[in-house]
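In this supplementary section we document a worked example of the pipeline. Step one takes a protein sequence of length 71 as its only input; no multiple sequence alignment statistics are reported here. Step two produces a three-dimensional model, which step three serialises into structure tokens for compact storage. The input and output of this example are shown verbatim.
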Amino acid sequence: VPVRHFGLILGWEDWHALAERLRAAEVDFIIDPGIRFKGKPGEQATMFLLDPSGNALEFKAFRDDSMIFAR
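The serialised model returned by step three reads:
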């Protein structure tokens, strides 16, 4: 993670819907929407952007919600 940030965990489908809305609105991302650890435990969707005040925001979703706090 490149910067200090605030994060929000969404449901899998909600994250994808938000990513599409932000892409359609031509939002500038710090890190483009993408999937990490695809096909592995802990698979997650993540994206980073800045709010209007310049604060970094991460929106994340887990394929399996039981992995949110897994180590």
